[in-house]
Amino acid sequence: MAIPTFVDRVVLHLAAGSGGHGCVSVHREKFKPLGGPDGGNGGRGGDIVLVVDPGVTTLLDYHRRPHRRAGNGAPGEGSMRNGADGDDIVLAVPDGTVVTGRDGRPIADLVGSGTRLVIAQGGRGGLGNAALATKRRRAPGFALLGEPGQASDIVLELKSVADVGLVGFPSAGKSSLIAAMSAARPKIADYPFTTLTPNLGVVEAGDVRFTVADVPGLIEGASEGRGLGHEFLRHVERCKALVHVVDGATPESGRDPVHDIQVIEAELERHGGLDDRPRLVALNKVDVPDARELAEMVRADIEAMGWRVFPISAVTGDGLRELSFAMASLVSDARAAAPAAEPTRLVLRPEAVDDDGFTVTREGERFRVRGVKPERWIQQTDFSNDEAVGYLADRLARLGVEDELVKAGAEPGDEVVIGGEDAVVFDWEPSMHAGSELLGRRGSDPRLE
Ligand SMILES: Nc1nc2c(ncn2[C@@H]2O[C@H](COP(=O)(O)OP(=O)(O)OP(=O)(O)O)[C@@H](O)[C@H]2O)c(=O)[nH]1
Ligand SMILES: [Mg+2]
């Protein structure tokens, strides 16, 4: 079985479902031509939910299908029939998936099996005219529109789920080692920087099953951006152990295994946060006679650095059994030492739900209104229906938006913008006038002259 390439970062384009529109309908019966309003409400749009599923280990699925859309709510119908809710979409993600906005703003760190996050909320269904009826407004000739679902681009990032990270110079044989130990088939070639994104393989040694990831080759100065840079080291930040893969057969002068390890260690140090990870050293390519000799020569020096040394050949398989069992034992030690279950960490973006607050700001000649409710109400309004527009004006006035506009210096005829990017622009007087008429019917609004 081929293990798919380790995909670690993907941009998802999400659209939650829109709410269904409310219905305008009047009850009809034989011999009773004028019944009450009986238009039902629109259904809720489906949410998009991220759920941690330990069975999922890569983001590959999302790489292939980055656009996801939840179901729309159905519109309401006559005879008080409410529209059905749209279907939610549940997206399974690996444990440890980091969710950010496209601008890099942190949204959530999804840790722990079953952790859920509603990442895009479906729009509310619009109320039908039955639900909008009041004593004073017995037969509303309008209904509310369904709200659009939240649409957003998010970034999913998976810091390596690998238990063991392979580090080393380009062409040391890291990918070859993964290929030799697991079913993964990464690209292998005799030129440097063959690996551009980490590969992941599953290894079994005795009864321990663990994952191994390679990291694109590092060179001196990687932390200053040389070669492919050191940013790939973030893939091994969550590894339980590191293995230095050292080329024992390099023809380059000025390179020997001890020096190579020191250079890589210096880059790890500069990256930071990896000091406490246990390490092994694999001296690779001992099928080449010179390499075998070199391995014997440097073995003691490396062991003096405190690490176990394994002369191996990724090509012939020499020494791989010993190495894999040593890896397995580091992994099981780390698993035994780790706290049973990491607590769920969820950094949720602060988003006010049902917030009564709003702001009115002057922008040159116009006035901008921002706020959860006013912006939602705008979306619910059918602007082709005067009564619906009047209802909107009524709501805005009751929330205090008109008062604040007056305080901010707005005068009849001024442009008022409600919302952010896809804002709706009004000439203040005409739209408010419709509302004032409604208010006027109630006969108590002091703003009416
Ligand atoms: N003789 C011999 N050659 C090997 C061995 N392991 C790897 N090679 C060769 O070394 C070259 C580089 O191998 P890769 O596995 O691509 O090396 P890498 O460390 O993944 O390299 P980058 O991805 O560029 O960092 C290839 O030509 C391999 O065939 C080995 O045990 N013996
Ligand atoms: Mg490679």
Automatic annotation (TrEMBL):
Residue ranges of domain Obg in the record: 4-161
Domain OBG-type G: start-end pairs: 162-332
UniProt cross-references to PROSITE patterns, sorted A to Z: G_OBG, GTP1_OBG, OBG, OCT
Endoplasmic reticulum among keywords: no
Purpose: An essential GTPase which binds GTP, GDP and possibly (p)ppGpp with moderate affinity, with high nucleotide exchange rates and a fairly low GTP hydrolysis rate. Plays a role in control of the cell cycle, stress response, ribosome biogenesis and in those bacteria that undergo differentiation, in morphogenesis control.
Recorded family membership: Belongs to the TRAFAC class OBG-HflX-like GTPase superfamily. OBG GTPase family.
PANTHER family on file: DEVELOPMENTALLY REGULATED GTP-BINDING PROTEIN-RELATED, MITOCHONDRIAL RIBOSOME-ASSOCIATED GTPASE 2
Protein name listed in UniProt: GTPase Obg
Organism classification: Bacteria, Bacillati, Actinomycetota, Actinomycetes, Jiangellales
